Each structure stands twice: as C-alpha cells, then as structure tokens.
Amino acid sequence: MTEYTQKRAAIKKQWPSAGGQVRLAKATVSNLFRYQPTSGSAQRVSLGQFNEVIAIDSAAQTLDVEGLATFETIVANTLPRGYLPPVTPELKHITIGGATVGIGIESTGFRHGFVHDALREAEVLLPGGDIVTCTAENEHADLFHALPNSYGTLGYILRARLALLPARPFVHLRIECFDTPRGYLDAMEQATTRPNIDFVEGLFFEDRRFFLMTGRFTDEVPQVDDILRDHVFYELVQARRDIYLATADYIFRYDPEWFWNIPNTPLYDLFRRHAPRRFRNSGFYTRYAAWKNRLREHMPARPPLMTEPLIQDWEVPWEKAGELVEFCLREVELDGRPWAAVPICTPRQPMLYPLAANQLYFNLGCYCQVPKAVGREPYHYSKIMDRKCFELGGIKMLYSSTFLDPAEFDARFNGAAYRVLKAKYDPRGKAPSLYEKVTVNTV
Ligand SMILES: Cc1cc2nc3c(=O)[nH]c(=O)nc-3n(C[C@H](O)[C@H](O)[C@H](O)COP(=O)(O)OP(=O)(O)OC[C@H]3O[C@@H](n4cnc5c(N)ncnc54)[C@H](O)[C@@H]3O)c2cc1C
Fold it and tell me: 50, 54, 91, 154: which to mutate for ligand 1, most atoms within 8 A of CB?
C-alpha cells in the first residue's frame, strides 16, 4: 500500500488540473477497437505505473489492485493462492480499470454478472485532479454505480478492491454439438441452472454447427491439453468432446490466437509452434496489426481493402436470442469464423448500461475481419447487427465503433443520469463526454 500511496501522491501533484482535456496513456496495449482513426488533441498523461497488485486478503477474499494492472498480472498473483476474480476476461492485457468502465464479460457471467459486479471499492482520479473513494453505499455511491460504461469520462480508477472466489488448478470442458439454434439455446440456458457448472459458453458457425462448452473446476485431469503450441483452442472445440486445461490457459484461451485472428497458413503455423512465448499473445498481435496498418497507409499505391472489422458485442434478453442468432446467420458473412456467445445475468442494473437486473441475457460477440458487403455502405454488418439488437430490446457494448446519433445514444445509455454525474464529477469538462469519446474516438 505504501508504494501505491506514493504513486497516488505523485500523480496528484503532476496532474494537469488547469488547461484543456486530458487523455490516458499507458504502457500496455488498448483493447478498444474503434473503426475510425483516433482524433482529439487532449494532453496525454500516463497512468501506466498503476499496474500492480497491492494486496490479497485471503480471510476477506478480496484483492486490492492498481487500476491499470492487467488480468495477466492479477491471475498470476491470485491463482497460485487459489483465487480468481469472479469474471476474468479472456485477453491477458485487459486491465481491471478498463474492464470495469468498459463492461467486462466472461463465461462465468451467467452466475457472477460482469467484471464490475465484483467491485467493492474504487479510488478514482477525477478529471479535474481530485481523488475520491467510492463504494456502493458511501457519499460517492452515484459515481460507483456510474463507473461501468463510463470509459474513463468520469475519472480514472487508480485502485480497485474486488471480491475473489476460490479457484482450482484445472478446468474440464465438456463439448456438445447441436444443429439447431433452439436445441442449442435451450441446452445453454439449462446449463446456467446446474450448480456443478462453473463456465458456460458457445461458439457457432455459419454452416449451422453450434458448440456448447460447459466447464467446471477440478483438481485432477487425465491429461493437460496445450493450446499455446499443439492446438488452436477454437479448432479443438470442434474436434473434441472433452478438453482439459490448466486454469490460467482456460481463462486466457483466446489470447494466443487473438480469438481467431491469426491466419491459418503454414507460415503462421510455424510461428505458433516456435515463436518465443512473449510473441504468442494478443498484446503482441495487437501491436503487430497496428504496425501493419501504419505501413499500409504509407504505401503509395495500395490495393483497396476487401475486408473490414466486425468487432462488436451485443446483449439481448434471453427470449430474443433465437431471433438474433437466425438474423446473424442469415445476414452476415463471417467466412468460416465463429460467433461467440455467453449467457449473462447481472445482479445490479448498471446506471449507464441499462439492462435489467436478475434477468438472463444472451451476449453475442464477433471478433474478426469480414469480407466487405458488396454494394453496401462501410461497416454494413455492424450497422445492421446494432439495429437488430436494439429492435430486440438489447444493448451493445461501446468498446468498438458505434453509429448512433446523439439523441438515440442519449436515450439508450441513460444520458439524463450521465449529464448529472458529469456536471458533478467533471464540471470543467476535463474529460470528453461519453458520446464524444465513443463516436469521435478520443480513446
Ligand atoms: C478483440 C476484442 C476482444 C475483447 N474481448 C473481451 C473479452 O473477452 N472479455 C471482456 O470483458 N472484454 C473484452 N473486450 C472488451 C474490453 O474489455 C474493453 O474494450 C475494455 O474497456 C478494454 O480495457 P483495457 O484495459 O484494454 O483498456 P483500454 O482499452 O486502454 O481503455 C478502455 C477504455 O477505458 C478507459 N480506461 C482504461 N483504464 C481505465 C481506468 N483505470 N479507469 C478508468 N477508465 C479507464 C480508457 O480511457 C478507455 O476509454 C474485447 C475487446 C476487443 C477489441
């Protein structure tokens, strides 16, 4: 805590409370994915030093952690002691602060909600430079409840206290394959009611193969599958009925391939098998993809891009899941890559992400480049999926591009409550508004 206190005092002193807008800089990669180029002239201030675990209290089952600590760091500290955060995102470089303000999800969400549902306390550096501690009940409870989906526009989390849950060293996954959405969704819903299941998740393909993965923690396994070198996780799911993984490998199962974004070519296969470990993770791949894009921009005669990103997550009430699945299979071309699905049920309605508490939602995600829709406007698939999601009474995550106009954005993300909070915690507008941040892309 002493080291944290010193860092906190230092940043308070250095924080540019006067002048224009301030924007976060950090040492690790960002897991925002906005289609538009970054804009805005805000002054960058690094909080990259707030990247460590402070303390684990085994008796209280809580973790105190700095806001920019990655889940890789968190898991490396908690798992050897037999604990994990209840919802631990699948990419190693997602941070606790980013996942709290950006609605973090995982295959435990049917039981434990979102990442932020484990938050017990947060110390927040307000855009103007003051630091406040907020909990669900104290004088800053309004800020506490508004952190999820605020994307740093109400302040940056310097320290978080999270609940922890007991974990075991291995995960046994059972895979079932279905050929209709109805049978699949019924089995997925049923799995969420089984007390001996710890993880529920699905992958499905446009050839109408629907894979349901149910997992449980275990102390012993007959074998341990290697998804860093020997196997690609999402391929293994299609080939096996049982998969056995070390718990950390399960948690970060999509990290080595950045979901399914490493191409399946002989060259990349060599890379998979022989590249040093530090290159076999989403952080490296994110940087590599950014470098490739910059290089391409400098090419004098570059061929037109035939693909565009479809990197989005949507949530619809469970009873509308079938309709969303049929829609995406009918309308969107994924070129053989999977859709990802998890059931989610949150115990509290997030103020700025208004889905209902204690109601099961179907989260659908797509994380890849897709062939451009011929004769359509840019980002056609994102736009039609967003529209369908809203039509079904759902909501979309904002870590990626959004195309809503200000009035609709305001209505869908509780703009009225946001304005009150923004005026109270950022009266001088030192941080952009949520709408500015997610549509103009000021990071
Ligand atoms: C390909 C892809 C896959 C994804 N997969 C998952 C997944 O499996 N599970 C999941 O939960 N999420 C997933 N996400 C979403 C991801 O969790 C969010 O984008 C999250 O906000 C990223 O957080 P970060 O730590 O990487 O922070 P950044 O990307 O650096 O920042 C995200 C936003 O949060 C703000 N922010 C960052 N740190 C803080 C802080 N300490 N306090 C306040 N604000 C802060 C930043 O200003 C920024 O607006 C995925 C995103 C992508 C692009």
Answer: 91
The answer to whether residue 206 is domain-embedded is: no
Give the CA count within 13 Å in the CB-facing half-sphere of 15: 23
pLDDT at 237 over 60: yes
Cα→Cα distances 251→79, 106, 163, 256, Å = 11, 9, 17, 11
Task: Indicate if ligand 1 lies below 6 Å from the C-beta of 105.
Answer: yes
CB of 89 closer than 6 A to ligand 1? yes
pLDDT in tens, 274-313: 999 888 888 888 888 888 878 877 777 777 778 888 999 9
Which residue is it, tokens 């046994």? 172
Return the closest-CA partner of residue 251 out of 373, 348, 167. Answer: 167
| pTM of the complete model beyond 0.90 | yes
Is 220 part of any domain?
A: no
Count of domains forming the chain: 1
30 CB near ligand 1 (under 6 Å):
yes
197-221 per-position pLDDT tens digit: 999 999 999 999 999 999 999 999 9
95 lines ligand 1 (CB under 6 A): yes
Q: Is 258 inside any structural domain?
A: no
CA distance 109 to 88: 10
**Domain CATH number, residue 19:** 3.30.465.10
Cα–Cα distance, 262 to 47 (Å, whole number): 30
**Which of 95, 115, 435 gets mutated to test ligand 1 (max ligand atoms within 8 A of its CB)?**
95
Check residue 262 and give its pLDDT.
85
Question: What pLDDT is attached to residue 29?
Answer: 76
- CA of residue 100 to ligand 1 center, whole Å: 8
| 73-101: pLDDT as tens digits | 999 999 999 999 999 999 999 999 999 99
In which region does residue 203 sit, left (phi positive, over 0), alpha (psi from -120 to 50) or beta (all else)?
beta
Determine the structural domain holding residue 38 and report its residue range: 2-166+416-428
How far is the C-alpha of 207 from the C-alpha of 221, rounded, in Å?
32
Tens of pLDDT, residues 346-387: 999 999 999 999 999 999 999 988 988 888 988 999 999 999
Question: Is 55 a member of any domain?
Answer: yes
Residue 441 CB less than 6 A away from ligand 1: no
> Within 10 A of 115 (CB to CB), how many other CB atoms are there?
28
Q: Cα angle at 418 between 415 and 424, to 5 degrees?
A: 145
